[in-house]
Amino acid sequence: MAPRLGRKNHNVDFTTGPITKNIFLFAIPALLGDIFSALYNVVDTIVVGQFVGSGALAAVGTSFGIHMVTSAVYAGFGMGSGILTAQMFGAKRHDQLTATVNTAYIGAFFIGTSMILIGQIVANPLLRLLNTPDSIMEMASAYLRVYFLGCTGQLFYLMGSNMLRGLGDSRWPTYALVFCAVLNTLLDLLFVVVFHWSVTGAAAATVISQLLSGILVVIRIYTGNYGIEVHRSNFKIHKDIFKKILTIGIPGSLQLGVTSVGTMILTRFANGFGEDLVATNSIVQKIEQFSLLPATAIGTALRMFIGQNLGAGNKERTKEGMRKTFVLICGIGLFMGLADLLLARVLCRAFVKNEVVIAMGVEAIRIIAFFFVIHAAQMSLGGVLTGAGATRPVMYVSFIGIAMRVLCCYLFAVRTGHWQGLFWATNTFYLIVAAIYAVYIWKGDWMKYVAVKPRRPVPETAQEAPASEAKEQEEN
After folding, report:
1. DSSP-derived secondary structure for 420-449
2. CA 134 to CA 411: how far, in whole Å?
3. What is the residue range of 30's domain?
4. Do 293 and 35 meet the contact criterion of CB atoms below 8 Å apart?
5. Contact of 177 with 234, CB cutoff 8 Å
6. How far is the C-alpha of 111 from the C-alpha of 96, rounded, in Å?
7. CA 375 – CA 429 distance, rounded (Å)
8. CA-based radius of gyration for the chain
9. pTM of the prediction?
10. How many angstroms separate the CA atoms of 326 and 108, rounded?
11. Other CB atoms within 10 A of residue 276 CB
């Protein structure tokens, strides 16, 4: 039974209509959502850096790699749920959409709760493993322990928003994030500036905002006329669907996890250069993240485009969309790289007042900005493979890329004693991964990973049979 979609859903069906227009219709709300999503951490960084100091900023920054490791688990689960939803929507398997959503949310509850408990146990050992300076250890630990409390809320939002986007709705995930990002900003100012709760207040503001974001998405997906229903009889884990989610999601989690471990190793290398570089690295990561948000939004649209069209069996339309989107994303990467080169000092000054950190940040941006186009290309090619459900090859490529990145960091920075080598190693990583993705898409059989096969059309002879039989009966 097909879901009855309300007029206000603004769903995008990528299997029909102009490709570029549909990509933009989907990507614009997704971009706004990505901007407000990034504001969660960036607002924390700005408020802490401006009103507490560079030491507190370093404490928040040194936790970034750990956030990525823990969030990789549920981010992969959300990725699997979203891709499976997109492929089922494209294949018109509407009867299985409710089962997919219910299965995903039950699994999400147990995964999120487990991550909260594990996070409290591993926070301090991980910080010590990262060689966190003693001067910021107490603040980093306090920030991280509170931040871990938001795992379930963040998982519910990530998974729910991915499933909504799989259905072609990129607006409601954005609506939820706009409200919650504004709330996060207000709570940051209240907890840090007024109550003087330092980094703990920043973490608490983020946790509360993420929880509300998750709740809003859950309410929307069940009440938004998508045909998703919840009853006692169907609110259960369906083993076959859960297996498909894990088949897509586990490689994605491992890929993100290994990437995060690599980031933690790089953080350890950066910590060895002192507190100023820790703060610099945190600022540069945020600037790079914001600069590539337009490319990220197009990549999100591409992932759902690929999922829906391969689910529908439209291989030629899939390839045409790949070509058009690749050119678009690379153009965005080139433009944003040039913009960051011109505005590097202004951007760094928005985060911190320390002139040494600002000077180091400007130099770092000048190193990586030239490679934004390569980073954007890597995002586009990876989005193609992920949308097809080929998360296992993506995982293998990531393993190779991270190994090379860590090796280059050691050779370019640790051995030479020049911190700039850390950022040249990042450029090398993006170049290697993009090249491998391109060769695999060109030569490899990546479409075999599609989890949902399209329905076979009814043969014309079968459709005409009842009519011919009726005609014969009339003649007799």
Report:
1. THHHHHHHHHHHHHHHHHHHHHHHS-GGGG
2. 26
3. 14-447
4. yes
5. no
6. 22
7. 9
8. 23
9. 0.73
10. 33
11. 18
- Please tell me the predicted confidence (pLDDT) of residue 65: 67
Residue 465 placed within a domain: no
**pLDDT at residue 467, rounded to an integer:** 44
Q: Is residue 284 a part of any domain in this protein?
A: yes
Specify the 3-state DSSP secondary structure of 417: coil
Q: By C-alpha distance, which of 67, 72, 69 is closest to 253?
A: 72
126 touches 101 (CB < 8 A):
no
Residue 75 CB partners (closer than 8 Å, separation 6+): 158, 252, 253, 256
Flag whether 464 is in a domain.
Answer: no
Percent of the chain past pLDDT 90, that is, above it, reads 23
d(CA 381, CA 393): 12
Eight-state DSSP code of residue 80: H
Q: How many residues does the chain have?
A: 476
Q: For 345-396, write each residue's pLDDT tens digit.
A: 999 988 888 889 999 999 999 999 989 999 999 989 998 998 888 888 988 9
**Tokens read off for 424:** 């040249």
What residue type is 6 in one-letter code? G
Distance, CA of 217 to CA of 163 (rounded, Å) = 10
CB 143 within 8 A of CB 63: yes
Give a yes or no: residue 462 inside a domain: no
Q: Are 433 and 399 in contact (CB under 8 A)?
A: no
Instruction: Name the domain count of the chain.
Output: 1
Neighbours of 405 (CB within 10 A): 25
